[in-house]
Design a protein that fits this description.
Layout: H1 2-16, E1 18-19, H2 22-38, H3 45-68, E2 70-74, E3 77-81, H4 84-107, H5 109-114, H6 119-138, H7 160-170
Helix pairs in contact: 2-6, 3-4, 3-6
Protein name: DUF1453 domain-containing protein
Organism: Amycolatopsis bartoniae
Transmembrane segments: 40-64, 85-107, 119-139
């Protein structure tokens, strides 16, 4: 239930439009992947094949979601907004996860049980790839990519490596901000 609540919260925020924050797009999904990888201990055979196939599907859908996200600039900062296509891809991703899990339970209950705790890995992979695609699009744009949004009205934090990427790939000179 907690995972569903977090996904709903993120979906609502991103539908409204929020600053593109590299920390949220990279660090949190990477942590989910690491936690999910720890759950793979002892997974072999059909369960491993299932995880590889569903992992590849999750990565592809994450890349497509990232490509579907609309980027725009507000007050010199890159913002991102989910589109109807992004939502449709989320629904498809969830349907694939539940449908493939159900099918695996029907075909090989033992393998399905062995692969059962992979939600963190799947979610982390998909959101990480989505974030990488969004960042790849954003570095070619005009607005500044934030590392982290300022709290309680404080200043936003940037990262030198993001600024350097933007300089390299946007075709512009130094970022004057």
């Amino acid at each position: 239930m907690l995972v569903i609540a977090v996904i709903a919260y993120v979906l609502i925020r991103r539908l409204a439009g929020e600053p593109a924050q590299a920390k949220r797009m990279l660090v949190i999904p990477a942590i989910l992947v690491i936690v999910g990888l720890k759950d793979l201990h002892g997974v072999t055979g059909a369960a491993l094949a299932y995880l590889v196939v569903t992992g590849l599907v999750t990565v592809v859908l994450g890349a497509l979601r990232g490509a579907s996200i609309r980027l725009f600039q507000r007050e010199g900062v890159v913002f991102m907004r989910y589109t109807a296509v992004t939502l449709g891809l989320w629904v498809l991703n969830i349907a694939v996860k539940f449908g493939s899990s159900f099918l695996m339970h029907v075909l090989d209950p033992a393998a399905a049980t062995a692969a059962g705790n992979t939600l963190m890995l799947s979610l982390g992979l998909g959101v990480l790839v989505e974030g990488l695609v969004v960042l790849a699009k954003a570095v070619r744009g005009e607005g500044r990519i934030l590392w982290e949004k300022g709290r309680d009205g404080g200043p936003h934090r940037s990262a030198q490596w993001l600024d350097d990427l933007q300089r390299r790939y946007s075709g512009r000179g130094p970022l004057d901000r």
